[in-house]
């Protein structure tokens, strides 16, 4: 898989996740996305910076604001993975 195909697939996964309503638990999708991101990093298809840019852009497409501007109380519907909490990349 090349970098462009990888980014397109990850964006599609993120869009599906972000469009779910807060009351809908997205556990399966979240784990799939985390694994997909980790695979991209390990195979060196993308960097942390690539992932962060894609997450930020996709978040903006769905919510119309940056992640940082969005109310953090919306996090109750998604658990934040440890590698993200440790500031490797911002939450999805």
UniProtKB/TrEMBL annotation:
Domain of life: Bacteria
Name of the featured protein: Uncharacterized protein
UniProt organism field: Thiosulfatimonas sediminis
């Amino acid at each position: 898989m090349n970098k462009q195909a990888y980014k397109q697939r990850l964006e599609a996964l993120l869009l599906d996740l972000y469009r779910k309503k807060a009351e809908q638990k997205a556990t399966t999708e979240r784990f799939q996305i985390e694994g997909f991101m980790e695979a991209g990093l390990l195979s060196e298809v993308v960097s942390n910076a690539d992932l962060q840019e894609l997450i930020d852009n996709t978040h903006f497409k769905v919510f119309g604001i940056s992640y940082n501007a969005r109310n953090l109380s919306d996090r109750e519907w998604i658990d934040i993975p440890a590698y993200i909490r440790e500031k490797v990349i911002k939450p999805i």
